[in-house]
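Um, can you check?
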Amino acid sequence: MRLLDLLRKSTEALESAGIDDALPDAEMIVFHAVGMDRLDAYVNNPEMKGADPEKIRRLIQRRAKGEPVQYIIGHIGFLGLTLYVGNGVLIPRPETELLVEEAIKAGKEPWAKIPEAKGKGQRAKETLDFDHAPLTILDLCTGSGCIALSLAREFPDAEVFGTDISKAALVFAKKNARANDIKNVAFLHGSLFEPVRGRTFHIITANPPYIRRDELDTLQREIRDWEPA
């Protein structure tokens, strides 16, 4: 069997299960399972001699039951970062990128006094403010850390903190910091401001779960049955 034949069968299985985005979801799962990118797959369409069809079938079955494809493949791209996700953490949405972009704009305002990608000494020299503290950023309900990590990468001289009441989510956030080699961020366990009580911040962001419980039944099953509320 060739790769595209396997993709066709996987797509048909997802269509039969009522999955709306059957083809793109099947592509993500199959190409992830065989370790091939989309372009190579369509150009070369290799024979699947070394592939494990049973493994792919199990992955497709998970998607057919409603599990988010991001959980199945274990990661998602977000503003140039590769973020690990899984049970216990919300999947970053494209809309969250807009929040990050607004926070970046705020961090570049004159009051922030932080020339981009420059160290404390250089900043002090240019602002003539040798007592000026580094930019401090707090991300509440940090989840996978997508916001905190994006801001920490954008402002490498900043001190960034992410808090979350979920220990499971923080496991992913810390793993994502290591995976993307971002060191100027700390993830702390606790509710909202609790872990950073007494500290002040230049920028505070938050993108918590915001669906009301009486609306849960109206959501797609991928969200309702799998992602944390």
Observations:
- Residues 88-224 form a domain with the Rossmann fold fold (CATH 3.40.50.150).
- The chain has two domains: 3-65, 88-224.
- The two ends are 41 Å apart (CA to CA).
